[in-house]
Amino acid sequence: MGAVKSKRMPRAVREQQMMDAAVRTFGQRGYRAASMDEIAELAGVSKPLVYLYLNSKEDLFSACIRREAQSLLEAVRAGVDPGLPADAQLWAGLRAFFVHTAENPDAWSVLHRQARSHGEPFVSEVGSMRDEIVAFVTGLIGAAAREAHSDPALADRDVAGLAQALVGAAESLAGWANDTPDVSAREAAATLMNFAWAGLENLMHARPWTPPAD
After folding, report:
1. Which residues contact 209 (CB under 8 A, 6 or more apart)?
2. Which CATH fold topology does 61-202 show?
């Protein structure tokens, strides 16, 4: 009897397999050092097949950025229950962020280090993701202000600035946590929550810190 032919793998599954290999390679080796030969070997396919599916190294890297950015955004949004109090919502969002970046260190390296250090079009791809996260955090902080008092003291510009600062701190802390042994996602989230919430809570209750006169 002849050998039974194995079922052909669907294109979408094969493509994701290649991208998984690419994220791992780009994350660990860097964009410049990563080779299509290495990615193909890790994915268990031929290099021509990688080019056939994903065109070029630049296109492959851009596709990895888009996929991992969407995955991170979905994780953060899914982690927040809008029915919770403001501090619990912020805690949940931060924890979801740090859990995702800890569980996907190669993806975070692609988004936070590799993409930003190699210019366009990669910087724009990551910038779009960051804008969405900032907008989401802006909504959380705005909701906290409305919860604290019906006539929020925080101006829209102040809320937007706080969201930018919080996201920037989360990005830096995630890189540190991934590089530091024995720092859990919960610990990283608690560190940022302790750093940020005390200040935010004072602002919500009209107790801002005022800089001295020049």
Report:
1. 199, 202
2. Tetracycline Repressor; domain 2 (1.10.357)
Structure tokens at 98: 């740090």
Maximum distance among all alpha carbons in the chain?
Answer: 91
Crossing angle (nearest 10°) for helices 156-179 and 86-103:
40
Number of H helices, E strands in the chain: 9, 0
Task: Give the pLDDT of residue 3.
Answer: 44
Q: Provide the pLDDT confidence category of residue 115 given band limits of 50, 70 and 90.
A: confident
Residue-wise pLDDT for 121-161, tens only, equals: 888 888 888 999 999 998 888 877 777 655 555 667 778 88
Quick one: the chain helix, strand, coil %, rounded to 5?
75, 0, 25
47: number of Cβ within 10 Å: 15
What one-character-per-residue DSSP string does 79-123 give?
Answer: H--TTS-HHHHHHHHHHHHHHHHHH-HHHHHIIIIIGGGS-TTHH
Q: Are 68 and 131 in contact (CB under 8 A)?
A: no
Cis peptide before 121 (omega within 30 of 0): yes
Domain positions in the chain are: 61-202
